Amino acid sequence: MEQNSNINEINEIVVKESAFIDVLKFEINKTIVGQEKMIDRLLIGLLGKGHILLEGVPGLAKTLAINTLAKAINADFSRIQFTPDLLPADVIGTMIYNMQENKFEVRKGPIFANLVLADEINRAPAKVQSALLEAMQERQVTIGEETFKLEEPFLVMATQNPVEQEGTYPLPEAQVDRFMLKTIIDYPSQKEELEIMRRNLNGDMSNIQAVTTTKQILDAREVVKKIYLDPKLEQYILDIVFTTRYPERYELDELKPLINFGASPRASINLATASKAYAFINKRGFVIPEDVRAMVHDVLRHRIGLTYEAEAENVTTEDIINKIVNTIDVP
């Protein structure tokens, strides 16, 4: 009985604290047509203290979405266009010599913002990717001898263009693992594209107002942590992740020759966190199996390594995740 009253208590807090989500989405939708999934994932990244890797062809409003979100929560936004000649200093900043003062001073780079768009991250060489990913992981940057904390909330949304692979530097597996979610975004529907076309032709692009604050986002993060995750669902998450490592233990022997390596412990942490954030967005103080299933593809698709055999048979990580989710018993 006591547990039920606790869950009801958390539920009431969540209903009250998540009210701003509807207002925020309404404001974002003044500019963004459709792309519900991308907006949800951005909010989940913000609430779960994670970063997002977005894959989609150019022109799907990726830049517009994160810029609009920044305006709506009154946060600092910066965009870094990754190119092959970019240097780490172009991302994190460097020491500049001030002739008037006769001393070196720090000039901070574009990483010092709340929401950072790392556009076409796979176009930059490894050392630039590493500089960005270190800042993402440590949430601090060292320039010269000084270390600067990055201001919270801090979210990096990196984009990859799946079409052009020439002259790109794919992210190594260990670095891709630092992204909480990898989201694939697709073209809008005909109805949505008609609305986009009309809005652009009429110049009807609304001014976005700040409808919430970064403090409210940070407060909401604390509420997300309190959302109830049943031990049975914790076990469900572990079973899903462990199946990517040891499929034979879960009577999925056919997956063994297809998986080169399974998901890391970050997958379990991120799947639990993302499920809680998803429950929060849906105004619930407890996680249900549907929350886990809604987030499982985004959390796992970049964390499973495929063998040559899988590639030869045209098996994708999506196929493997579907097989796992359809096999593991739902609590």
List keywords for this structure.
2 domains, 15% strand, 11 strands, 5-stranded parallel sheet, 14 helices, 331 residues, alpha/beta, Rossmann fold, two-stranded antiparallel ribbon
Q: Report the CATH architecture of the largest domain.
A: 3-Layer(aba) Sandwich
The gross shape turns out to be: globular
Rg, Å, rounded: 21 Å
Please describe the biggest sheet, giving its number of strands, its sense, and whether it closes into a barrel: 5 strands, parallel
Please report the distance between the alpha carbons of the first and last residues.
Answer: 21 Å
The CATH topology of the largest domain: Rossmann fold
What are the secondary-structure elements, in order, as H or E?
HHHEHEHEEEHEEEHEHHHEHHEHH
Class by alpha and beta content = alpha/beta
| Beta content | 5-15%
Query: How many beta-strand runs?
Result: 11
Which runs of at least 5 residues are low in confidence (pLDDT < 50)? none
**Can you list the strand order of the major beta sheet?**
2-5-8-1-9
CATH evolutionary superfamily of the largest domain? P-loop containing nucleotide triphosphate hydrolases
Q: Tally the helices: what do you get?
A: 14
* Overall mean confidence score, pLDDT: 86
How would you characterize this protein structure?
- By secondary structure, the protein is of the alpha/beta class.
- The chain has two domains: 32-202, P-loop containing nucleotide triphosphate hydrolases (Rossmann fold), CATH 3.40.50; 225-327, Orthogonal Bundle (Helicase, Ruva Protein, domain 3), CATH 1.10.8.
- The chain is 47% helix and 15% strand.
- The chain is built from 14 helices and eleven strands.
- The protein has helices spanning 2-17, 19-28, 36-47, 62-72, 88-92, 126-138, 173-176, 190-202, 214-226, 231-245, 265-281, 289-300, 308-312, 317-327; strands at 52-55, 77-81, 93-98, 103-108, 115-119, 140-143, 146-149, 155-160, 181-184, 259-261, 305-306.
- The protein has a five-stranded parallel sheet. The chain has a two-stranded antiparallel ribbon with strand order 3-4. It has a two-stranded antiparallel sheet with strand order 6-7.
- Helix 3 packs across helix 11 and helix 11 (265-281) packs across helix 12.
